[in-house]
Amino acid sequence: MDETSPSTSKPETQRPKSHLEAARREKLRRIADLGVDPWGGRFDGHRPIAEIRARENEIRVIPAGECEVGKPPELQGPRVRAAGRIMLLRRAGKIMFIDIRDWTGKIQVLVGKAQVGDKNWELAQCFDLGDIIGVDGELKRTKTGELTIFADDLHFLTKCIETPPEKWHGLSDPELRNRMRYLDLTYTEGVMERFLRRTRIVQSIRKTLDEEGFVEVEGPTLHVVAGGAAARPFITHHNALDIDLYLRIALELHLKRLLVGGMERVYELGRVYRNEGISPRHNPEFTMLEAYQAYGDYHTMMELTEKLIVRAIEATGQSLRLPWGEGVIDFTPPFQRKTYDELLAEHTGVNPSDPSSISQFAQSHGIEVRGKHPDVIKNEVFEEFVQPKLIGPIFVLDYPASICPLTKRKRGNPAIAERFELFVQGMELANAYTELNDPDLQEELFSRQLEGLPEEESMARMDRDFIRALRYGMPPAGGLGIGIDRLVMLLTNCQSIREVILFPLYRPETE
Question: For residues 189 and 210, is the Cβ–Cβ distance under 8 A?
C-alpha cells in the first residue's frame, strides 16, 4: 500500500509498525532493482528552496501569439534544481504532488508521468513520506496559483525506513522532541528557525566583540583546580599522569592569566559543566561567554553587555520589544540600573544595613539562619524574594563583598563589591565585576571561602598558580559572563533551556 498524505488516509501511528517498515523495505528493494542507489550520492547544483522561491518574479506569461495555434497563453519559468525531504505526498492518476522541505523552506513539486518518463515514474511510486529526493524542473504556478516545480527529472537521495511523525500532531511530547531533535527540527514548526536564530545570535556576539577589539581564545576544558565559580564539578581521571581532573565550571581564571600575559581584550565562548540539578533554567552542560577588558571596570562591562544584546536582537531581524509568554520584554537601551540594597528594601521592607532586620525577615519566612554569615542570609532573602520580581532588563549593582571573592571592593566602602548581575524575567542573564587584582587579598579571600573544608580538599581547590600569576601584575580590568542558552531563551520566547540546546541531557532510555 502506498503512503499518502495523512489527510487522505488512516493516521500511520495507528498501523502496525512492522507492516509499515516491511512496506518501506519492499520499496527499498524495488528502487535497487531499478538500478538506483537508494542511499544517493553527490548532488551538485541544487539551490536552497528559499532562493528558488525568490525567483518567482522570473515567471512570465507567454503571449498567445507565441504559443501553438489554438492553445491559451502559458507560463514560462526558470529551470531550477532542488533537494529536500518529502513532507506531503498526494497521488492523482498519472500526476503526483509532493511537498519537499530543506532547512530554508518548503515547496511543492508536480510529478507527471508524461513529463518525467516511465523509469522516473516507476521510481516515484517508491516514494514515502520522509524520503529525501532531488528534482530538476521548471518553476511555475499551478492553476490555483501555487508556486511549484514542474519536474522533468527525479533523483533518489535517501530512503527513510522509519515512519515519520503524523503530520497534524507531530512530536507532541516535549521530552521525545528534545531526545529526537533530528525529527523535531524537521517536523515541528519553528524549531529549525529557532536554532538558526541561535546561530545568528552567537555570530553577532562574536562580531561585536571582534569589532570592539577583543580576541577569541580557547582555554582548557580539563582543569587541575575547579575554580572561578561556586559549583560542583564533574570529576575524571587522567591515567598517564595518575591525577584527578575537573571539567571546567567557569572560564574566568585562565582568561585572567591572559590579562597578566598582556592580552588586553580577550574572550571565550564555550561549554562549561556543573554537576548540579536539571530544571527549565539549568542544564549540566551549557554555553558561556566570558570577556575581560584591561583598564575597564564593571561600568565598562554594562555598556558592553547592552551593546552585545541589542546587536544580537538586531541580527535576528526582530524588534527590541520581544514577546515573552503572554507579555513583552523591552530591550531598548539604556537598561534600568538599581543597587542591590535599593531593591532589597523596595521588595522586602527590610533595612539592608541592619543584619538583625534581615535575619528576622528570613526567620519569619522559613529561611534557616543559624550558623550563617549575615551576608549569606541577606543573599538568600534577595534570591527568594527579590529576584523573581526583577522583570527587567535591569542591572543590579553593588553586591555584598563577602559573597564576591573575585571582585574588587568599592573605594571608600570595602563591604561593597563592584559587581552587577543583569536580570530579565527573574532570571540571571549576566554577571560582571571590576576584577580583583590584589594577589594578597585574593589569596586571603580564597582561603576564607574554603574555610571549613577538609585540608586536603581545601588545598585541591586553591588555585595557587592563579595567585602566582596575579603577583606578576594583572592590570585593572572589567570582566563579564553571559549565559548564552538563557539569552537565546529570552530572544526566542522559550520557557525551557532544553528548547534552545540541540541535545540536552536526559537519563538514558530503557529498552
Answer: no
User: What are the helix (H) ranges across 316-426?
Assistant: 340-348, 355-364, 374-385
Spell out the CATH class of 6-187: mainly beta
- Judged on CB neighbours under 10 Å (0-12, 13-18, 19+), 412 is exposed
- Per-residue pLDDT band at 11 (split at 50, 70, 90): very low
Q: Is 421 annotated as a binding residue?
A: yes
Task: Report cis status (omega within 30 of 0) of the bond before 393.
Answer: yes
Residue matched to cell numbers 536552497: 48
Return the higher-pLDDT residue of 79 and 225: 79
Domain parsing of the chain, residue ranges: 6-187, 191-335+392-499, 336-390
- pTM, entire model: 0.88
Topology of 191-335+392-499 in CATH? BirA Bifunctional Protein; domain 2 (3.30.930)
Q: Could you read off the pLDDT of 353-388 as tens digits, one per residue?
A: 999 999 999 999 999 989 899 999 999 999 999 999
The alpha carbon of 393 is separated from its chain's Cα centroid by a whole number of angstroms, namely 20
**What cell numbers appear for 314 in the block?**
538586531
Residue 85 pairs in a beta bridge with 101, 132
Beta carbons of 27 and 189 less than 8 angstroms apart: no
Helices (H) and strands (E) in the chain, counts: 16, 21
Q: Confidence band (pLDDT; 50, 70, 90) for 510?
A: confident
Q: Is 26 annotated as a binding-site member?
A: no
